[in-house]
Design brief:
The chain is an alpha/beta fold. Helix content is about 40%, strand content about 15%. The protein has a single domain, classed as Aldolase class I (TIM Barrel, Alpha-Beta Barrel), CATH 3.20.20. Mean pLDDT is about 95; it is low at about 1-10. Bound molecules: glyceraldehyde-3-phosphate (G3H).
Length: about 260
């Protein structure tokens, strides 16, 4: 039977998702974040920024001497081929990315991505040596219908490959209604969801599931980060808007100071 690793034994990660924001000038933000994190904080928490694809190479190069890493926001499931406009996981790895977000609700909504697509993209990430940051989360209508646990459990079951491990996978719970709205679930609601996710992952993956990092995402700000990051089985955050300004992002990271 799997052991029950506690959140305290899992090194947290705060990842910033810049979404479709930023330009080469934004790379100065990386330097400010890196300098603000410093080696002492970096020993307690991993820090990552996921810029738009055109910035991945320059960002990864800029971060070579900073205590942080670069991820990407999406990848195609295949390694190469006739897929105009798409980017493979191998290309992202070649540019210096160490991770890729898959299954973000904006991809699911805007591009019709289903759990099977997300799973294929996570497998592509593994193939390329990238960590897959797999996003799950219910809509407002699903929460109001009391379906959030079932929805997220199904997404977890169908989106995660059998090859998922604590080293190659991070799960991000992002209630769709909390993204960019300033709304967040109560601490009790986050705790309940993360406990369910931990239980599901441990049941399926054993020790790997017990020690997989589980992030909360959705309107994380400096003012609520300490409370959210202090919840059991919350091993960090996936941050959107507040990752665009170094001061705000550092304010969130400092929840681990
Ligand atoms: O990937 C990040 C999430 O969508 C959260 O975005 P937000 O922090 O702007 O609400």
């Amino acid at each position: 039977m799997a052991s029950t690793a506690s959140s305290q034994t899992i090194k947290p990660i705060v990842a910033g998702n810049w979404k479709m924001n930023g330009a080469r000038a934004s790379l100065a933000t990386l330097a400010a974040i890196g300098e603000g994190v410093g080696s002492q904080l970096a020993s307690k928490v991993d820090v990552m920024i996921c810029p738009p694809a055109p910035l991945v190479f320059a960002a990864a190069t800029a971060c070579e001497k900073l205590p942080m890493t670069i991820g990407a926001q999406d990848c195609h499931a295949e390694e190469s081929g006739a897929h105009t406009g798409d980017t493979s996981a191998e290309m992202l790895a070649d540019c210096g990315a160490v991770a890729v977000i898959v299954g973000h609700s904006e991809r699911r909504a805007d591009h019709g991505e289903r759990d099977a697509d997300v799973k294929a993209k996570a497998e592509a990430a593994y193939r390329a040596g990238l960590v897959a940051i797999v996003c799950v989360g219910e809509t407002r209508a699903q929460r109001e219908a009391g379906e959030e646990i079932a929805v997220v459990s199904d997404q977890l079951a169908e989106s995660l490959p059998d090859a998922a491990t604590a080293a190659n996978t991070i799960v991000a719970y992002e209630p769709v209604w909390a993204i960019g709205t300033g709304l967040t679930p109560t601490a009790n609601d986050v705790a309940a969801m993360h406990k369910v996710m931990r239980d599901r992952l441990t049941a399926r993956f054993g020790n790997e599931g017990a020690s997989m990092r589980l992030l909360y995402g959705g309107s994380v700000k400096p003012g609520n980060a300490a409370e959210l990051m202090g919840i059991d089985h919350v091993n960090g955050a996936l941050v959107g808007g507040a990752s665009l300004k170094a001061e705000d992002f550092l304010g969130i990271i400092s929840a681990y100071a």
